[in-house]
Amino acid sequence: MNRKVFSIGLIFSLMLFATSLEAASEDLSKIEKLEKRLETLEKREREWFKKGESEIRVYFKNGFKMRSLDNNFKFQAGGRIMHDWGFFSEDQKFESTYGSQENGSR
């Protein structure tokens, strides 16, 4: 009886150990994939700057941006341009009373 309980307990613990090894190998494969992806992204980033190119890259992507080759410096300028327009014209009653008005921009 004790042998039977012991063997069942041993088999059960081995099954748990096997599943934990499987999960660990999945985690390792995910880590390797992420490291490869990071390596390709870093390579692409290094290729973005050519030899002899200035260390600060200036570009327009969703606003005016500047950044250094090593990304220690980043700058983005943003803002808004406000317009205020107005148009005025005289009706006949105003024109007959006061005369024609000059353009206000002169």
Folded structure, characterized:
The protein is an alpha+beta fold and 106 residues long. The chain is elongated. β1 and β2 (64-68) form a beta hairpin. The chain folds into two domains: 1-48; 50-79, no CATH class. The chain is built from two helices and three strands; from the N terminus they run αβββα. The protein has a three-stranded antiparallel beta sheet, with no helix packed on it. It has helices spanning 2-48, 92-98, and strands at residues 56-60, 64-68, 74-77.
Short description:
By secondary structure, the protein is of the alpha+beta class.
Class of secondary structure makeup: alpha+beta
Give Rg in angstroms. 37 Å
The structural domain count equals 2
Number of helices: 2
Please, what is the oligomeric state?
Answer: single chain
H/E element string? HEEEH
How many strands, what sense, and barrel or not for the largest sheet?
A: 3 strands, antiparallel
- Please provide the count of β strands: 3
- Strand content bin: 5-15%
Arrangement of strands in the largest sheet: 1-2-3
Intertermini distance: 111 Å
Instruction: Classify the helix fraction into a percent range.
Output: 40-55%
